[in-house]
Design a protein that fits this description.
Elements (H helix, E strand, L loop, with lengths): L21 E8 L2 E6 L3 E6 L5 E3 L6 E7 L2 E6 L2 H4 L11 E8 L2 E10 L1 E8 L4 E4 L3 E6 L2 E5 L2 H16 L5
Length: 168
């Protein structure tokens, strides 16, 4: 991990990757691998021992955690990714997701069964776009990339809407 942000949440190192390569964190959900854009991930930590509280939200948003005095909703992408939900285990991780490509302030957390590894991939091993879905080639197989911009954007828009005064 790197230095702490203004919010007090420790950040992953954001040093730039080698020219033309994209950075991904590879996570497992129900035994299947998925890619995550590393630039949006501020921190990773084991979920065991965190004070998770029940949370009523849209599907996938069922708990929240308090980190550095700030409550963050936690998203479990299993249903959206089409895989089974597994009970929390010793390798279950919380990934703190930032609002922007450069990380930004923490917006939400994402629950993963485990973090497998970090990959820097050349353009030939990355396909698609955010609108249609992205895929990364890991070994001999193409794996889907979870859209962190959409996940963080959803929650940020919801927060902004709740903060705006309503006019009657």
């Amino acid at each position: 991990m790197g230095a702490a942000s203004a919010s007090g949440v420790p950040r992953l190192s954001t040093t730039s990757s080698r020219r033309g390569r994209e950075r991904f964190l590879v996570v497992r959900l129900a035994g299947k691998e998925f890619g995550l854009e590393a630039a949006r991930i501020l921190a990773t930590m084991q979920m065991r021992g965190l004070d998770l509280q029940p949370f009523e939200g849209p599907p996938g948003w069922t708990q929240q955690v308090e980190l550095a005095g700030r409550k963050l909703p936690v998203y479990s992408p299993n249903l959206a990714a089409g895989v089974a939900i597994r009970p929390m285990g010793p390798r279950t991780c919380l990934l703190v997701i930032g609002a922007a490509e450069d990380g930004g302030e923490p917006v939400c957390g994402l629950q993963a069964d485990s973090v497998s590894r970090y990959e820097e991939l050349p353009p030939l091993r990355v396909r698609g776009n955010a609108a249609e879905g992205r895929f990364v080639r890991l070994g001999y197989k193409w794996r889907p990339v979870l859209n962190l911009a959409e996940i963080a954007g959803y929650w940020k828009a919801r927060e902004d809407k709740q903060r705006r005064p309503t006019m009657s």
